[in-house]
Amino acid sequence: MTNIKMRLSTPTDIDFLWDMLYHAIYVPEGQTPPPRDVLKDPSIKRSLTDWGRTGDFALISTDASNQPVGAVWMRLFDETTKTYGYIDAQTPILAIALKPDYRGKGIGTLLLEKILQEAKMKGYKQISLSVDPNNPALRLYERFGFQQVGINGTSWDMIAKLK
Ligand SMILES: CC(C)(COP(=O)(O)OP(=O)(O)OC[C@H]1O[C@@H](n2cnc3c(N)ncnc32)[C@H](O)[C@@H]1OP(=O)(O)O)[C@@H](O)C(=O)NCCC(=O)NCCS
Known about the structure:
Layout: E1 5-8, H1 14-24, H2 42-45, E2 57-62, E3 68-75, E4 93-98, H3 107-121, E5 126-131, H4 137-143, E6 147-152, E7 155-161
Antiparallel strand pairs: 1-2, 2-3, 3-4, 5-7, 6-7
The structure holds coenzyme A.
């Protein structure tokens, strides 16, 4: 897509990341999105609480005016901080979302390519995520080699091996 750029996140992107976390929550076709307060749910908010810990890494996509339009991030958790998609303390969990008008144009593919490269460079053996199997994003994840390894409520835990 023309004029879309990608950059490393900075500390001032934190509000945008929270916004993207809200957008990453799956809303089935025809259903009303949850209230913004859903971000206070303990297992959801752990995805970004205290952002800036060792290992935290995010990429931001921006438009021609340098406004953020999407983000992908990865983060390590442990038994006390874990959230959806948790496998173990060595496996970062990935999350991704774009603003609605920017979906389906290849931006998510670019963000995923880049963060998987980065995860490999950092020496991680695998990376995980959580997705509702009805979310069309599942196809994208499968194209990148993610495979289902478990189920948590209605969401699938998926892992991609990083060779
Ligand atoms: C998931 C998402 C980041 C993918 O980025 P994208 O730029 O739209 O994806 P691309 O254009 O690079 O690739 C297309 C793939 O994205 C997924 N996709 C496209 N539109 C989507 C949408 N509105 N919602 C969810 N996934 C979508 C599909 O897997 C699609 O593959 P297909 O063409 O075989 O159907 C983006 O669509 C999005 O923000 N969706 C809403 C938030 C979300 O579901 N996040 C993931 C939570 S686990």
